[in-house]
Amino acid sequence: PARFALQADKRATLEMALEHLQRQAPRSPLPSAIALPPAAPLGSVRVDADACTLCLSCVSACPAGALQDNPGQPQLRLIEKNCLQCGLCARTCPEQAITLEPRLLLEPSRRELRVVAEQPVFRCIRCSTPFGTERGIAAMIARLGAHPMFQGAAADRLKMCGDCRVIDIHTGAESRITDL
Ligand code: SF4
Ligand code: SF4
Q1: What is the pLDDT of residue 146?
Q2: Which residues contact 86 (CB under 8 A, 6 or more apart)?
Q3: pLDDT band at 25 (very low <50, low <70, confident <90, very high)
Q4: How far apart are CA 150 and CA 21, in angstroms?
Q5: What is the pLDDT of residues 135-172, one digit of tens each?
Q6: Which residues, including other chains, have CB under 8 Å from residue 142's CB and lie 6 or more apart?
Q7: Which of 2, 20, 40, 45 would you call most buried, defined as having the most Cβ atoms within 10 angstroms of its Cβ?
């Protein structure tokens, strides 16, 4: 018999039931994970490391706190047990870097934060403050490189943090409308 009480949060009850069933399973080695059919409400997400820019849009979109950033490093992290397989992260990702993986992970790491994507930090070329990732800055340059605001020497502003960008705009030799 199970010894847990039903919780108001159905997901919490489901977690306790799964843990209970796992403890009662025959002692033969269990697989590390069991694949589940599409639309199952348990699973992981795979992130294409070559496509992800660590923009963290998926973290904002995740309604379950499954995807999280790391305030200390450019990392995307996942707590698998929280993932509902709702797909909001995959639909939000501008790089189509996320694939859902319905499954029941039977290892303790299911409850732990694990890194699913990480990148080297990018430092401001003027003050060296870390403010993004190398791939994120490269993606921004690819998107904004043709904009009139970032031509010539001003192109370097895309590699500056927000503070230095403002300082550079107000100290540089900008063309003024009154000079034309
Ligand atoms: S997976 Fe997509 S949305 Fe999430 S950080 Fe990477 S690029 Fe951004
Ligand atoms: S599928 Fe849903 S719950 Fe899972 S990580 Fe993506 S947004 Fe979060």
Answers
A1: 85
A2: 63, 64
A3: confident
A4: 59
A5: 888 888 888 888 888 888 888 889 999 999 889 888 86
A6: none
A7: 45
Rounded to whole angstroms, the Cα distance separating 8 from 75 reads 33
Please give the number of the atom of ligand 1 that sits closest to the Cα of 51: 7
Spell out the domain ranges in the chain: 10-23+31-118, 121-173
Angle ∠(44,45,50) on CA atoms, nearest 5: 145
Kindly report the length of the chain. Answer: 180
Give the C-alpha separation, 17 to 2, whole Å: 8
Rounded to the nearest whole angstrom, what is the distance from the C-alpha of residue 67 to the centroid of ligand 2? 7
Ligand approaching nearest to the C-alpha of 82: 2
State the architecture of 10-23+31-118 in CATH terms. Answer: 2-Layer Sandwich (3.30)
Average pLDDT across the chain, whole number = 90
